[in-house]
Amino acid sequence: MTLALGTIADDYTGASDLANTLAKNGLRTVQTVGIPADDLPLGEVDAVVVSLKIRSVPAAEAVEKARAADRWLRARGAGHVMYKICSTFDSTDEGNIGPVLDALSADAGAAAVLVTPAFPETGRTVYQGHLFVGSVPLNESPLKDHPLNPMHDANLVRVLGRQSVSRVGLVPQALVARGADAVRARLAELAVDGIGGVIADAVNEGDLVTLGAAALDSQVSVGASGLGLGLARGLVATGRVLRVDATASVMAGVGGLSACLAGSCSKATLEQIARAEDVMPVLRLSAEALVSGPAEAEGALEWAAARIGDGPVLIASSASPAEVARLQALHGREAAGHAIEQGLATIAEGLVKRGVRRLVVAGGETSGAVVDRLGIPAFALGPEIAAGVPVLRTIGGAHGDLLMALKSGNFGGVNFFTDALGLMSK
Ligand SMILES: Nc1ncnc2c1ncn2[C@@H]1O[C@H](COP(=O)(O)OP(=O)(O)O)[C@@H](O)[C@H]1O
Ligand SMILES: O=C(O)[C@@H](O)C(=O)COP(=O)(O)O
């Protein structure tokens, strides 16, 4: 396997979002969970997305894991490695975007690394270095209430500057509009000035194609799925990859039962859960009970066992910002989040043991906990359910073939759960 592109994602849903974009744009892509064992059959692929769970861990741990993944990818021929971050730039002043960027850049001997979370297909655009979610700046969007990393500043030059050891530059949209050569020239100037990360504006697909073409000349880039689109298009346009659609072949039926789990408290997920109540049994867990001991997860499995033979069920811990704040005040932000993730992972494991083969999970950290608990080593890419969310088929692991969808909290239309199960049942 000689890779045309290596990528490292800071969470598992983000990884499947990026893998979806690369596959949709013609790259044979596989998503691994961490660095895979040498004997895992990944097949001939153009791109690997190594999923890590490093968005909300201490910066030193994130750096160490990203560095190891980078070494693995480069040893398999990847000349360019993209670090996949959230399209809403989820991070804190401690990191982890800046520290990982600094480390990967130092290891590769890179300077003036392009950084853009723009993903216009899902409403994320960057203009004059400011990130917009739909029509509002990041700090006015629902991300201001995120349970783990509330975002209070839309100016990404400032946000990245607080996390990075180097000064941060900007490539404004007016320059991006002049094309890849203009961007390359500006990056070269910024490198001479000692700039580390460079926030790049992008408001449409054309901007991303320009940025992807420019980024491919360097060893490292940082971005969300939009930049993945640019890189994939650049690889195909320059003949380095032959465009292929391999997603249909992963959809052979897996049989068994279906279930959905939600730990995301994002606005979109809360609406999707409310809509699911019209079409399937929904159990709303008590987050407080889930944090206090195993009884709540055991009770949820009994509840599911009584219903799941008749059709899919949904089990959710998701709650409004006020309820999340109340629980966090009692237990602390990280402890509450971790305990709930582990409770949902226990439920996922129990469901699979009871015959669930098609599993939809909403929430990035939640998906990470579930995938780790199930011991899944890698995923092949199936078709797209909604922007940024593909059907995945497990590769290897102790549970046989499962179809899964790992949904980023904010993604998907209001009927997401039924859309996902519909596609997974074909
Ligand atoms: N009722 C709740 N109260 C507090 N925190 C919660 C609750 N339900 C879930 N959480 C936590 O909120 C976090 C949601 O993050 P995540 O799963 O990444 O979703 P998203 O994709 O929306 O960011 C997780 O750590 C989860 O355990
Ligand atoms: O880029 C994105 O928005 C997503 O791929 C993503 O990473 C979202 O994170 P979660 O909402 O925590 O899943």
UniProtKB/TrEMBL annotation:
Q: Domain Four-carbon acid sugar kinase nucleotide binding: where? A: 260-417
What the entry lists under Pfam families is as follows: NBD_C (PF17042), SBD_N (PF07005)
* UniProt keyword terms in alphabetical order: ATP-binding, Carbohydrate metabolism, Kinase, Nucleotide-binding, Transferase
**Superkingdom field:** Bacteria
Q: What is its EC number?
A: 2.7.1.217
Domain Four-carbon acid sugar kinase N-terminal, residue spans: 5-229
GO MF annotation list:
ATP binding; kinase activity
Under catalytic activity, the entry for this protein gives: 3-dehydro-D-erythronate + ATP = 3-dehydro-4-O-phospho-D-erythronate + ADP + H(+); 3-dehydro-L-erythronate + ATP = 3-dehydro-4-O-phospho-L-erythronate + ADP + H(+)
Protein family according to the UniProt entry: Belongs to the four-carbon acid sugar kinase family.
Give the function comment from the record.
Catalyzes the ATP-dependent phosphorylation of 3-oxo-tetronate to 3-oxo-tetronate 4-phosphate.
Query: Which NCBIfam families would you find in this protein's record?
Result: OxoTetrKin
The name on file for this protein is 3-oxo-tetronate kinase
